[in-house]
Amino acid sequence: MTDAAPAQETPVAAAFWRAAPFIFVILWAGGYSFAKLGLAHIEPLTMLALRYALAVLVLLPFLLRRGTRWPSGPRHWGAVVVTGFLIQCVYFGLAYLAMKRGMNAGTTAIIMSLQPIVVAALAPVVVGARGGRGLWGGLILGFLGAVLVILSGHALGPSPLAATVFAMMALLGMSSATLFEKWHGMKTDPVTGGLIQYVTGFLVLMPAAWASESMTIDWQPELVVSLAYLVIANSLVSIGLYIALLQRGDATRISALLYLVPPLAMIVAWVLLREPVTPLTLAGFAMSASGVYLVNRKTAQVEIG
């Protein structure tokens, strides 16, 4: 993978990549509400296994196109599988298990909001990225904004020890995937890379679901809508954009976008589920956005310098 955008791009491509971070964060944030719709009719690991199986089926026709590029060798194949395992199994699987074991969504979101700080702390060791006071100020501001949003929804509560352990491991999974993508430096075709990731997720989580859940599926319209969104918007578009953005930019800057997920998720929940949005929510949104802006500005200054 390359660490920067191509030297020459068409105006359309350049406009797309400017919009891509916003597309990613909006679609990613919507996943919480659509998952909530579906989880009333299916257990979490069963939902993830089904989601990955459907994503594979959607991607298969794209393999018939000309010029399909598979990973270039065993090391490249291994890198794609590792990234898929870290995101699809460790991050999603353990985050869902944390909520199943009693952790509230708000507590889970706060723990996941630590990812940009984890990435920034480890980036100098893993990928040699540089930081500074302004960068850390933006990271902390963004995190506090995410906390404020979650507090505005009264979404916090006590969490069992097992759920806390699962959530912390999920956080490390997504952070590790982000740093690993920047470290190994190999470019992967989004279609073949996605296919390998979702096959990996399915092969790991299907047996886990079979061993720990009843695998009962109540086929209601809400579940169909939920799965359609999670497969297309989250599994295909959002994850594809996240990996592509990591290939083109700084890991800390891209991770900081996740600070916008809790406030945007609450806005989507307000539209879709009629959950209330308070002035405190909007204030937290403003803080998160300011933190992301500060991180992006400081990172860009480091790159220019």
Can you summarize the main beta sheet?
none
Structural class: mainly alpha
Morphology: globular
Instruction: Give the overall average pLDDT.
Output: 78
**What separation lies between the terminal Cα atoms?**
22 Å
Number of helices: 12
Portion in beta strands: under 5%
What integer value in Å does the Rg equal? 19 Å
Oligomeric composition of the shown chains = single chain
Number of beta-strand segments:
0
Elements, N to C (H/E): HHHHHHHHHHHH
Query: How many distinct domains?
Result: 1
Helix content: over 70%
Q: Low-confidence parts lasting 5 or more residues at pLDDT below 50?
A: 1-5, 301-305
Task: Explain how this protein is built.
- The protein has one domain (11-304).
- Helix 1 (11-39) runs antiparallel to helix 9, helix 2 (44-59) packs antiparallel against helix 8 and helix 5 (115-126) crosses helix 7.
- The relative contact order is 0.22.
- It has twelve helices and no strands.
- The protein is mostly helical and 305 residues long.
- It is globular and about 50 Å long.
- The longest helix has 29 residues, at 11-39.
Write the layout of secondary structure elements.
Elements: H1 11-39, H2 44-59, H3 74-100, H4 105-112, H5 115-126, H6 133-152, H7 161-184, H8 190-212, H9 221-248, H10 251-256, H11 261-273, H12 279-304
